[in-house]
Design brief:
Elements (H helix, E strand, L loop, with lengths): L11 E6 L3 H11 L6 E6 L8 H4 L6 H4 L2 H8 L4 E4 L10 H7 L2 E4 L5 E2 L12 E3 H8 L16 E5 L3 H11 L2 H4 L6 H8 L5 E5 L11 H7 L5 E5 L8 H9 L1 H14 L8 E6 L2 E9 L2 E14 L5 E13 L2 E4 L3 E2 L17 E2 L2 E3 L6 E7 L2 H4 L8 H15 L14 H10 L6 H17 L10 H8 L5
Parallel strand pairs: 1-2, 1-4, 2-3, 4-18, 6-14, 7-8, 7-14, 8-10, 9-10
Antiparallel strand pairs: 5-15, 11-12, 12-13, 16-17, 17-18
Helix pairs in contact: 1-14, 6-7, 11-12, 16-17
Length: about 475
């Protein structure tokens, strides 16, 4: 038998933990390596693949979700297998994967939200935007959540694309949302919503906003919605002016915001009010529910690294609101047995090679891609070059990699283990059955799909037990 790894006789066995964009781009990059033969097994916590494309992308952004056609081709490759409804850390553990795979790739994203760290943050009515996004997208972890939308005003803390998304969903005509794949229960709640104004708070100025040109432009195209910006917030300091001059995207954002500020008539039934240089400092409750948001006016100062940060100037006011959604960033969470860096909330790595948290030395055969590798930055497409870079490291390591014993190379060994540990695991053929069911239900209503939102219901559909 050929002793080299990566031949037809001895393919490289690769496990990918996570089936979101980063995981699929890693699989794609591996399959494109013409000099080696590999087999890839993908493990995912839910029966449904595609990660944030299914559970995070806004339902009214169907064009972005079209990327799943690429992922579908990757998952359908004869050297790729999908094992859904399998949780890393309980159904399978790191030691299992080390036993049956030459190389392991962690593609688990950044699953938790950052906190604001202010009094009242845990009052009822205050939530991470990630929870709200998961709720309206039918994420199984959040499908049982209930949001009280009986108040006229909501506050969204943050100035990135996710903040824009949740603000937009809150004021979009439900009849428009009914044409999307939004979760049915979320659509029903939004139809009853009394929210007429969403206030977006950005701690820095318009030149530092993290949203894209397309996202901010889309707000101004919403039917029945005014976007209100105070012209005073668009008076830029010299460093912000320099940012505008140096970056076309920043300049375009400011240009769009100035167009909104120039609008004098605000007669639409719903509105988004954008405030800059403003930070929440306390959530004030009534009967343990959010009632007021105390905010402080900021100024921009230069930090030690030469960047601009916000500093409060001691000028305060309050905003009445019954719902507060914070979108101030994501952070990774530790995986059982896998090195983790608490300060940066990532899996410590050098060029995608996992390194020991204590000794800083590479861990043989273990790698990381996506947000778990670099932190929560970029858009879906950013994960592609990121994955390509990690796979390059994997290929560099291959000649010196000892690999697993040949007695453990039989691909059915892991299947037997899953039958023992998690007999209701889901294959890609099972997912395609669920996918066909969802899209057929959607077609009946003129929608892309009607999502099944709980794991038991998903398994019932897969096994033809749906009522």
């Amino acid at each position: 038998m050929d002793a080299h790894l990566g031949t037809e006789a001895r393919p490289v066995r690769v496990a990918i933990v996570g089936a979101g964009p980063a995981g699929f781009y890693a699989a794609e990059a591996l399959l494109k390596q013409s000099s080696i033969v590999c087999t890839i097994d993908m493990f995912n916590r839910f029966p449904t693949p595609f990660g944030l494309v299914r559970e995070g992308v806004a339902p009214d952004h169907q064009s972005i979700k079209a990327v799943t056609r690429i992922y579908d081709r990757i998952a359908s490759h004869p050297r790729v297998r999908y094992f859904g409804n399998v949780t890393f850390g309980s159904d399978i553990v790191r030691e299992d994967l080390k036993l049956y795979y030459d190389q392991i790739v962690y593609a688990v994203g950044a699953q938790a939200d950052r906190r604001m760290g202010i009094p009242g943050e845990d009052l009822t009515g205050s939530y991470p935007a990630t929870v709200f996004v998961g709720w309206y997208n039918g994420h199984p972890d959040y499908c049982d959540m209930e949001f009280d939308l009986s108040h006229e005003r909501a506050v969204v803390v943050g100035n990135g694309n996710v903040a824009i998304d949740v603000a937009r969903i809150l004021v979009t005509d439900p009849d428009e949302l009914a044409k999307t794949d939004i979760a049915d229960y979320a659509l029903a709640t939004l139809r009853r919503s009394k929210i007429r104004e969403v206030v977006m708070l950005g701690r820095r100025g318009p030149a530092q906003a993290a949203f894209t040109n397309a996202e901010i432009k889309e707000l101004g195209e919403l039917a029945g919605v005014d976007v209100i910006v105070d012209p005073a917030d668009l008076e830029l300091d010299k460093l912000s002016q320099a940012q505008v001059a140096d970056d076309k995207s920043v300049a375009r954002n400011v240009e769009i915001l100035r167009a909104y500020a120039a609008r004098s008539e605000h007669t639409a039934p719903r509105r988004i009010r954008m405030r800059f240089l403003t930070s929440p400092v306390e959530l004030i409750g009534d009967n343990n529910r959010v009632a007021l948001v105390k905010v402080e006016r900021n100024e921009l100062v230069v930090d030690r690294q030469g960047g601009l940060r916000a500093r409060g100037i001691g000028v305060y006011d309050t905003i009445e609101a019954g719902l507060v959604l914070r979108s101030v960033g994501y952070r990774g969470v530790p995986l059982p047995g896998v090195p983790f860096e608490e300060g940066t909330f990532i899996i410590p790595n050098i060029n995608g090679r996992v390194i020991g948290a204590r000794d800083g030395e590479p861990v043989s055969g273990e790698y990381v891609v996506g947000w778990a590798k670099r932190g929560p930055s970029g858009v879906i497409g950013t994960n592609k070059p990121d994955a390509v870079a990690t796979v390059a490291s994997m290929m560099e390591d291959l000649p010196t990699l000892v690999g697993i014993p040949d007695g453990n190379r039989d691909p059915e060994r892991i299947v037997a283990l899953l039958h023992e540990r998690k007999p209701d695991f889901v294959t890609y053929a099972d997912w395609k059955r669920l996918d066909a069911y969802e899209t057929a239900r959607g077609a009946e209503q003129g929608r892309p799909r009607v999502k099944v939102t709980t794991v038991p219901e998903m398994l019932a559909v897969i096994h033809d037990r749906a009522s």
